[in-house]
Write a structure and sequence with these properties.
Blueprint lengths: L8 H7 L5 H7 L22 H32 L4 H11 L6 H6 L18 H7 L1 H9 L15 H9 L4 H23 L1
Helix pairs in contact: 4-9, 6-7
């Protein structure tokens, strides 16, 4: 058997997330001049140990946490610095961290209920649908002082991208109104649940 010193990236991408590929290909190099045997690059003598596995996993996790916390720290400061009531700030934080109990999220956690929007019944109730894409929410955004038009469904933004675009507008009043309207959409969505 002839060794190929490069990774089969198509197959590797199928099992390793794209943003983690570099860690894989940099840490586990194929050396065609060495006989084929399992090695563990972080262990003593290239042998695996629980300690070396734990240290590698810890370093990968801490580097991932550091990169996400650095990326999001400005966003979180912006959320907590809004001049709105605390429940709106908490709501927006839950939106951005994917913690809202939408029907889609509850179904994914094995809660037995219909995942469809309780207001329009047209799509699954995701965070984006509840506060932006539902026909009722889209109408609210169009008639609001912000005059936001519905997002092109062929290129839907996730809520984080949408918030980042609003954040780029240098007007604190726009930011506060945006956060309050997001909360109002969610509140109205939940009124459908209670009747």
């Amino acid at each position: 058997m002839e060794l190929n010193p490069s990774w089969d990236m198509d197959k590797l991408e199928a099992i390793v997330p794209r943003d983690e590929l570099w860690k894989f290909t940099d840490n586990f190099k194929i050396k065609p001049t060495v006989s084929d045997r399992p090695i563990w690059p972080t262990g003593k003598g290239n042998a695996f140990s629980v300690k070396s596995g734990y240290l590698l996993a810890s370093s990968l996790r801490s580097s991932h946490e550091a990169s996400t916390s650095v990326d999001d720290s400005e966003l979180w400061n912006w959320v907590w610095g809004l001049e709105v009531i605390p429940k709106v700030k908490l709501f927006l934080w839950k939106c951005l961290s994917g913690s809202l109990p939408t029907a889609q999220a509850l179904v994914s956690r094995s809660v037995e209920l219909q995942p469809w929007c309780r207001r329009c019944g047209e799509e699954m109730e995701s965070i984006e649908h509840a506060i932006r894409d539902c026909s009722w929410a889209a109408f609210l955004w169009e008639i609001s002082p912000l005059r936001l038009t519905p997002v092109n469904q062929s290129d839907p933004w996730n809520v984080k991208v949408w918030v980042e675009r609003i954040r780029s507008i240098p007007d604190k009043e726009v930011h506060n109104l945006f956060a309050s309207l997001c909360w109002a959409c969610w509140y109205a969505q939940n009124l459908c649940l209670s009747g």
